[in-house]
Amino acid sequence: MSAIMRCASLVVCISTLVTCASTAGILYPRESESREVRSLDGMWNFRLSLPDPLVGFKERWYMKDLIKTGPVMQMPVPSSYNDVLVDKKIRDHIGLVWYDRSFFAPESWRQQGYRVFLRFGSVHYAAQVWVNTHLVLSHEIGHLPFQRDITANLKFGRLNRITVAVDNVLLGTTVPQGSLQNISTNTGPKTIQTYTFDFFNYAGIHRSVFLYTTPVVYIDDVDVTTNFTEDGVGIINYSVQYGGSLSSGEKLNCSITVLNNENVREKITVITNDEEGLSGIVKIENAKLWWPYLMHEEPGYMYTLEIRLSTTWNVDDVYRLPVGIRTIKWTNTAFLINDKPAYLRGFGRHEDSDIRGKGMDYALVTRDYDLIKWIGANSYRTSHYPYAEEIMDFADRHGIMIVDECPSVDTDNFSDKLLKKHTTSLAELIKRDKNRPSVIMWSIANEPRSDRKDADSYFKSVANFVKTLDGLRPITAAIATQLDTDQLGQHLDIIGFNRYNGWYTLPGHTEIIKSRLEDEATKWHTKHNKPVFMTEYGADTYEGLHLNPSFVWSEEYQVELMSEHFKAFDVLRSKNFFIGEMIWNFADFKTGQSVTRVGGNKKGVFTRQREPKSSAHHLRRRYWALANHLDGAQLPCDIQSYVIDSDGQNNVEL
Length: 654
Hints:
Structural class: alpha+beta
Largest sheet: 8 strands, parallel, barrel
Shape: globular
Strand order of the largest sheet: 25-26-27-28-29-30-31-32
Helix content: 10-25%
Radius of gyration: 26 Å
Strand content: 25-35%
């Protein structure tokens, strides 16, 4: 067995520690009167674990500054490490890498009796974290946050060190799955990572790292559900869980205030369910509802639930949670927001960009949401993993509906061990995003091999598990298997399917699309008697390639293929069970190296640099026309370029 094969033991080791989702909360760090938040983003020391993947453990690199273990590089956090430096060895590295950095913990934190938490937004794929030589955190599954109270491990008023070991190896029981393969090279044997999913396996500390403080007794988690009455009263059902221990005889009280989007206190009525006020109902007269973009003149309206936890002898804790008041309902033919049918106009996407890979970047996120709104979309799926919390914040505020997907992609070789990891990923995702108004569905998988043996019982277990955590949102998935062999659809509330007619099936033949798509979507509904939407369709398009008549890979062909889908979508909408269309993809993205990929997947309507192809303008006209037709949205003045005076008075004589 190669050294890299043995390196997989880190994933195995962590998986024995992460046998189930933690019962503690994972609230996003927010400053308040009682809480300080300090970012540890910036430049970290970094090195590969070479030539022996386990050398860092053998030599106990976590016991000293990383720079004392050998040559280090500077690596930005957050970012993927793969594309930052011009080194193929780093880009294609398989196995362990190490990070460290130092920070001061103020003496004032100790004097005020603060608890101090260390929180990572995401590390891909597996991580172990040491603080001042003490192992404090182990986590498996990228794209999800994890944290720990590290108060006992800190040196207050002095310099402290964080060391992180990151492993990007994917195996048959990781989520997502992969495998290691030995190949022969000019210099000897080498182990490479293989996987079936079609995006690059970026790795590193992808999202922000925070230190944050709380009082001794603190708000640990909050659960919120919302509703409204016919006479306009908004209802917020809340439940607060606290952490820390009360002293003997010490009493606790929880009070609630609601702020509107201008930070002005609302007049509310609070009905508590217990003496401490930890759960109850908040009523707001003439409440403003959370609406999706272009379904209302004021989309994405957010209140702030201000929670104050008071104890007899300790400092109060204050946490402010953004809340949108809206309802979700679904029938066997429709999906409704606030009792109004909603038609999804959107995308599959990726967290992906030049240099930073999957690293969180506010400038990129701002640009992406501006383009989403420019094009007239109202939704997207977080294909094929949970996106950064900061990205989700934008969705809440801008009224963009989210189909929230766990990291299960191309799931195969079903086993109890894989099932445990799969459900853990969903438990962590739902705990993180349960209070977000933008999240309208949970997607439990993308293109699983749902025609295989044991798929039925496997996905029945996954779906039932999700229902125990959240019964207020529908469950969906993006199915790619054929209708007659699929065993997943029966366990879903809403059917999503991916199909590439005119591309992977009979490329160049757009004349097959309309009839095939109408037929398949109708059969999905007939078989399961559930709403149906299309989660992927599209064609790779090399920007700047123009061919007339259209030809595969040209911008003209992408537009033609889209139009044939639009025709089918309009017929399906008239049948009253079809609830949405999501093109693949929002923007071009990087994949593994392949003779079928020219610098990555080119199915985006935008380039990787977020510039429009011809298809972006075409899709914009489609989405805005739908918004106008279905929801009464006013068309932008620049949706069509001027050609001729519409009243025909400026006739041109030929």
